[in-house]
Structure formats: C-alpha cells, structure tokens
Amino acid sequence: MSTNSNLYAVTSADFDSLVLSASEQRLVLVDFWAAWCGPCKSIAPMLEQLAEQLAGKLAVAKIDSDAEPALGARYGIRSLPTLLLFKKGAVVDQLIGAHPIQALAAFVAKHLERDSDRWRREAADKRIAGDLADAVALLEAALASDPENFKIHPELAEVLIDVDALERAAAVLELLPSRAVSDASKRQLARLKFAQLVVNSPSLVELQREIESHGASSVLRYRLAIRQVIAGDYAAALAGLLEIIRTDRAFEDGTARKAILDIFTLLPDGDALVREYRTLLARALN
Question: Catalytic residue among 29, 37, 95, 224, which?
Fold first, then answer.
C-alpha cells in the first residue's frame, strides 16, 4: 500500500511520521484492526471510501494490532475495531466498534475544516490589521456559503458592532437557532445591547462634566455606566450601577441590575470582577 496515498499501513517505525507529523497537515484516522476481527472487515471498505471522498483532507492509517501490540498499548486499545482521529499531533476523538458509513462520516466531519472556517481565519487576520470592511465581507461570504457554521454568527456580529452596523448585527444574531446559542453569541448580544443604548447619547466626557456640574442622578449614573462599558472600563461601570441599586433600587424597573448581569456576560468566566460583584450585588439586593 503506497504511503503517498490517502490510505496506508502504519508500523511502529513510521507511526510518528505517517500519523503524528501527517496530522499537522490533515486529519489522520487511525484504524486499529486485526485479521480475525469480523467488524474490522465490515468497516474496511467504508474507511477506504471516506479516504477517497476526502482526499487531501483525510488520511486513513491502518494498524494491525496483532503485529503492532506496542502501538495498541500506547493508546490503550482494548477492543477492535477502534478508530482514533488525530489532528495537530494529538488524538481528538475516538470511535469503537463497527458503524454504518453515515456514522463514520459524521465522526470525521466534526473535525474537518470547512471552507468557511478558512474565511473566518482570514477575517480574524483582517480585523487585527484594522481592515474591518474586508473582515465583514469575508464573514458575510462565509455565512452565505455555510449558514450552518454557527461560529460565524457571533464573529460577524462582533465586527458589525465595531463598525456601528447595529441593525445588521442584530439581524445576524437573530439567525441563530436556539440550539446554536453559545457563550460567544451571548457575549455579542450583550455588546449589542450596550451599543444600542449609547446611540444619540452624550459622550463619556459630556456625562462626566454634567455630573460634576449638577450631581449624580440615577439617570446620569446609568448613562455614564453604559458609556464606561463601551470604553471597556467595566470596574467603573459596575461600581456606578451598584450605587444605583443601593440608592434607587426601583430605578427603571431594575435596569441597573440587568446591566450588571449583561456586563458579567461580557467578562471571561472566572473573572475577578464577576466574582466580586456577584457578592456585592447579592448583598445590595438582600
């Protein structure tokens, strides 16, 4: 069997090059099999079919478990057939036993890079370079070509919010079905809420001056906190919103509390500010 093909035999001597190194360039599906194993024989033609259909994206490496017991021990193989999927030099998934072609294809498909993922990477590079218009164009093309890739929606919404295309950002997030709502999409929905709140609102400096001149009413504190969120000053925003709750809990039907919860959504899991203000919020509400 040619080692230049998409389907080849592997031994201990060439495992590192034909599996680990090869998986840096494409997925490698390792099939641990044995000649006496009936289920191994049943999936063999299916694996060959996948290798042909996904040429360039997937290689199938076959390991005779009887001839290569050390490799089986290395990966804890206890039953046959066992399929290990390698990506970037590591096992990313495992499937044990015989399965129909549809299940095998789905097993692999979860880890295949889609064309839309390549466009997502290019869009991320454009965004880092400051080319936001190009980033939007790439992500919109990715979404049009692959609407079931739900990683695109929050990324596109994020850039649209950056360029103040708020209605378009809202429309993109609304396309997500409930089953596809993720932390990333929730984060962009929270960003969108704050961005919508500052439309036609006084600037941060103007609000600070007004508070210095006329005092900090709940309305001014709230508007300032929203501006501080937009500026990325989450600590100041949380402090201002908490002060509203302490002094004017009924302000606009709990709007300050809702804003604090939206800020929690914006911040990373386990962030120190989230831990601190969850405690402070609970105390203020009790």
Answer: 37
